[in-house]
Amino acid sequence: MPICAYFPPEEIGKHVIKCIWKLREYAFNEREECILPKGTVEIIFNLSDEIVYCNPGLNIRSPLPACFINGINFKPFSLVKKGPQRLIGIQMNAVGLRLLFGEPVRVFNNTVIEGQVVCKSLKTLYQKLIGTEVFEEQVAEIMKWAYQRISAAYFNRDLNRIQSLFFSKNMADYTIHRLCKEGGISDRHMRRLAVEWLGMGPESFMLYNKYLASLHLLHHHKQCSLTQIGLQAGYYDQSHFIRAFRSFTGMTPKEYRLSNTKIPGHIMV
Question: Long-range pairs for 213-222 at CB < 8 Å and ≥24 separation?
Fold first, then answer.
């Protein structure tokens, strides 16, 4: 499963694009890949034979478009693949959606949306990407497109506040009241910013980040016990950890640790 990856070193990488990746693989037999909530959003260019998107919670089973946007997920979904797979992805923080498209992040939650419905320039970008096989050239086209989309709105006041409120602190140490007090902002205004830029309210953001921390620890620290992982992620006891992890994934931490996974949050069924 060859993967190319590019990590932007400059400011745009901190606020918008975390990674640009390219995947090429072949599935001889039909297989299902379960993807757990990972806290990122992605714009994906699908150059493959048919890939089917399955979302049991929304009763959706449909082929993926040539270009699509997948927002923040709170429940697992699956992809059914067969034959040659060629994908190029732009992995972002949630705030990247707001900066690139000017829409509240919540409208993208738990769904896949055809790219050109949101932004017509994505169709043009898709054509440029399929016009070359050279990954460095594809990256250059993506970065050029991103800079053009956010040039007018990049350093605005709301973005700076979001970064200060939610991304420069250890959220496990904070309450909503403390966030408001240190940020010099009203409770109502903070909640509006969180929903528009993060796709969820501040309490949900705190709970979601505890879950993401536990997912990372489970995958990368296999020598740690489940009790240790729960405590490090900020859960006050084991039952709380198990209950919270299952609410996002439909499985226990132990079941995830025993699953067939090479990439964090991706399970081959």
Answer: 214/241, 214/244, 214/245, 214/253, 215/36, 215/38, 215/245, 215/256, 215/264, 215/265, 216/264, 218/253, 218/256, 218/257, 219/261, 219/264, 219/265, 220/264, 222/257
